[in-house]
Amino acid sequence: xxxxxxxRAKRIALWCMALGIxxxxxxxxxxxxxxxxxxxxxxxxxGFTIIPISNYFxxxxxxxxxxxxxxxxxxxxxxxxxxxxxxxxxxxLDRIEGLGE
Length: 101
Prior knowledge:
By secondary structure, the protein is mostly helical. Helices cover 81% and strands 0% of the residues.
């Protein structure tokens, strides 16, 4: 029962942090994109804004692909175990080095 509460609390905290980052980031991205599109309607800025807009879309698509790949491959399921694996490997390497001397 206590484990279930901790897991649920961690999930809620994770979602709150994710939304706290994604909502302002998405707003900023959308606002800048709208400014670029408005600049397209002017004569002096039409050619200049095509490159930044295409860069925005390429970067956003790349980040979305990376996020999807990480979710599909379970990168967010167990975020605690890599640090323990690293410490175990370091201890094993230290043990092997100690045998080689």
